[in-house]
Structures
1.
Amino acid sequence: EDSVIKLLSSIGEKPKKAESSKEGPLKIYELIRGIEKEQFEIFYQPKINCSDRTIYGVEALSRLNHPRLGLVFPDQFIDAMERTSLINELTRYILEKSLEHWKHWHRHGYLLNLAINISPKELNNLDFPEYVLGLLKKKSIPPEFLTLEITETALDLDHADSLEVLDRLSMHGIQLSIDDFGTGHSSLERLRIFPFDELKVDKSFMLHARENDSDRAIVESSVMLAKRLGLKVVFEGIENSDLYNMSDHLGGDIIQGYYMSRPIPEQDLLKWIENWIKKNS
Ligand code: C2E
Ligand code: MG
Ligand code: MG
Ligand code: MG
């Protein structure tokens, strides 16, 4: 079943994925070269407000444009990069590039929330908050427009530094999101300790929420918990009209998924936005 989903999601956006998967994860030297030669590209996936279908923002998702393999997806490079300091360089590259993109969208009249995925490795680095805040200041972008998404399983509960880093970011208005919620251990404790603003219910629960009672139970209780804690709820994995139509009823604030849009290259984003607004007004 998982492989069917993988196959489906490879249609359209990812023509070369099968090829790169066969070869396995990329080698470190290919990743170093990718950074040096600026072969990483940012795709953006829209986040839509549930209540009125307006655009809340976009999530930046990295792809490597490999000279031989074509477009390579994060499952082929994030783990390897996290085992070295390369992930810090990727984060910095993505942050600086996407904040430039934010300014471009702003010049066209769109105020979007920009979400970036952050590796747990960044959270051990006490200089990270100042770096991010410095960038925002330099580019005159209010911190409230930046969301940092942190995968639940990646968050080390025992690490005092990560709490301090997240506290400092949060104190300055940067939005913090717990990603893939429900897939890790001690989900609840993480919510209690860290200053999150947003909870993203993992797409594995959403995908079958309609026909599978236990998946729906997990979605519903995550929503209830998030609301009690004052967090925004994001549903990812909205792949079809059924899920799209039931997400409001299930209590989602923001939805994201292939049904609205796959992640799209930066150069196509403004066009997509204009179309979406036309269709939904
Ligand atoms: P994520 O942050 O949970 O992002 C959601 C993933 O689900 C993305 O895969 C997205 O393309 C996919 N997706 C979106 N809508 C749907 C849908 O309706 N159905 C299904 N089946 N899938 C959907 P992607 O782009 O391959 O990224 C995978 C993961 O890699 C991300 O999961 C994130 O954890 C990580 N990642 C991506 N870019 C970066 C990055 O720049 N830095 C770091 N540290 N991690 C990244
Ligand atoms: Mg994410
Ligand atoms: Mg996720
Ligand atoms: Mg994920």
Note: The first strand starts at residue 40 and ends at 49.
2.
Amino acid sequence: TPRPALKYFHGLPLIKYFAENFEEVEKFQAHPDDLLISTYPKAGTTWMSEIVDLILNDGDIEKSKRDAIFIRVPFLEFAVPGVLKGIEQLAALPPPRVIKTHLPVEFLPQSFWDKNCKMIYVARNAKDVAVSYYHFYQMAKVHPDPGTWKQFLKKYMDGDVSFGSWYNHVKGWWEKKKDYRILYLFYEDMKENPKREIQKVMKFMEKDLGEEVLERIVRRTSFQVMKENDMANYGTIPTSVMDHSISPFMRKGISGDWKNYFTVAQNEEFDADYAKKMGQTSLQFRNEL
Ligand code: A3P
């Protein structure tokens, strides 16, 4: 089956089916107890979802084994023919709900701001996201064909990929945290010291679960354990939507893989363009650990 081209919703490029459903998403009514996990795609959404879900359930591993991650943490704007939409799933779920989104800050349904919901934003450096996204485009066939790495990288730098510009996304959410309850975290920090970052999440969620549960959540959300766990890594999604034989969802889970993809020339061009796009912000990323 041919891959659908992206479709624009008020200037935002989206997976075609998501764009066609977006007017409904805009009307979504958040509950004050909803906790939102917001990310640019490939920044560590699934990892944070697993962490937050476990914290919410007091580290109850058995509960997390019963349902797949996309059931436990619905994807707000998700819409693919023949599958329950994110907003439909959420309608059936009692608060406190954990909700995931990839929307740029200006596209988040107004209700989340009105209800002053807590939000956790996870950001990952632009180069590793580009590499991860390239592989994800290949395996998740609701995206257009990414073409070659060179072709994809250009599109990514131009913001001509699903959910738009990485640069605008990370900056937009960074600015918004001045006025709302947003915990802004970094994938690189989570890699460096998962325990420390999970403690930040617990504190933000006002959960004190003790050392033993904390250690259990750290182990349970390690890359190796999540990779083996179909419930945590979309292993139960039909191959027509995600084909793990093309590229596994749990691909490498490291920082600095971009060095295996960027040529020296691509890296120089990327850095110069990055400086232009990111020059005005206090937001700092680590491209390697
Ligand atoms: P790579 O493709 O670089 O391996 P998202 O969930 O936002 O789509 O992000 C997916 C990326 O996060 C993938 O990156 C995936 O391997 C990585 N990831 C998922 N779970 C992880 C974990 N527990 N630890 C480290 N990285 C993880």
Note: The first strand starts at residue 7 and ends at 9.
